[in-house]
């Protein structure tokens, strides 16, 4: 879904590049179709702009459909290219704009955790195989931090203490330090204070890919992942890991939050009785004032 407009200079610059790539993907025997979703100000502009494109378009008059698609995929700016599975409609990649520039990466799914990490990470006694970190029932943490960051320097000793306590409790918990240090010497000094593993400092592209994948906008950040599948468990690992009893630190479900009973007008109602196949449960946040 290509969200774009005739009046938008970045769109006008990107559209010829996308058209070139669209034809190249077809020439490579790949199935790739595009639908132009217009933000043009009038139908004449839409028609002129669509005339420059080799793909399909949502009718300009379908403004409600355009608004629904923008809302569904949280499109906040243009140009935006949303990539979807051609059979299921499943979201493949919200950053299609850059992804499609590499035909070899078709169908342009974002890399998994394991794709990003590669084959090895650093241990204090040598390289460690990433495959050896994949453990059923385990938790893998990505610790985004830096030597120059005061909050990081304050948090790292607390995390190290908890890391050892979790191991002593018989839980499988490994951490990989992902450095935002300004040079390798600072990285090495800081890593020397840590009891866990690290992404090699030279792997700057991997660091960038992980930061992008997990939307890391500040440090310290601790991302918690399922040790077997790489599934995201908790983006707020920084506070979550302070409670060993809550291992593996998944955020509470709705049912965890609600507890066992809620109030009815004629007495308490069991939450278990609200769980109905095909039903809908609404949480109404409101106040008298």
UniProtKB/TrEMBL annotation:
CDD domains: TryX_like_TryX_NRX
GO molecular function list: thioredoxin-disulfide reductase (NADPH) activity
InterPro entries referenced in this protein's UniProt entry, alphabetically: Thioredoxin-like_fold, Thioredoxin-like_sf, Thioredoxin_domain, TryX_NRX_thioredoxin_dom
Any Pfam family the entry gives: Thioredoxin_8
Domain of life: Eukaryota
Gene Ontology biological process: negative regulation of protein ubiquitination; negative regulation of Wnt signaling pathway
Matching PANTHER family: NUCLEOREDOXIN
Record protein name field: Thioredoxin domain-containing protein
């Amino acid at each position: 879904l290509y969200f774009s407009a005739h009046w938008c200079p970045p769109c006008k610059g990107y559209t010829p590049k996308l058209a070139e790539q669209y034809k190249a993907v077809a020439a490579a025997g790949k199935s790739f179709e595009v639908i132009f979703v217009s933000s043009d100000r009038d139908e004449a502009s839409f028609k002129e702009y669509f005339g420059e494109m080799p793909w399909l378009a949502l009718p300009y008059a379908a403004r409600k459909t355009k608004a629904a698609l923008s809302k569904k995929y949280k499109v906040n700016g243009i140009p935006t290219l949303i990539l979807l599975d051609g059979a299921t409609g499943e979201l493949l990649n919200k950053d299609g704009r850059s992804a499609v520039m590499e035909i070899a990466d078709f169908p342009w799914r974002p890399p998994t955790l394991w794709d990003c990490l590669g084959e090895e990470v650093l241990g204090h006694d040598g390289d460690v195989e990433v495959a050896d970190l994949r453990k059923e029932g385990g938790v893998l943490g990505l610790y985004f931090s830096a030597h120059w960051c005061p909050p990081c320097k304050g948090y790292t000793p607390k995390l190290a203490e908890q890391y050892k306590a979790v191991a002593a409790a018989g839980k499988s918990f490994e951490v990989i330090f992902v450095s935002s240090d300004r040079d390798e010497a600072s990285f090495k000094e800081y890593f020397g204070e840590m009891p866990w593993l690290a992404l090699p400092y030279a792997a700057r592209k991997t660091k960038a890919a992980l930061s992008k994948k997990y939307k890391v906008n500040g440090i310290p950040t601790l991302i918690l992942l399922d040790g077997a599948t790489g599934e995201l468990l908790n983006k707020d690992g920084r506070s979550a890991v302070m409670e060993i009893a809550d291992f593996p630190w998944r955020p509470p479900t709705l049912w965890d939050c609600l507890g066992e009973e809620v109030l009815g007008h004629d007495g308490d109602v069991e939450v278990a009785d609200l769980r109905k196949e095909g039903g809908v449960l609404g949480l109404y946040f409101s106040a008298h004032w």
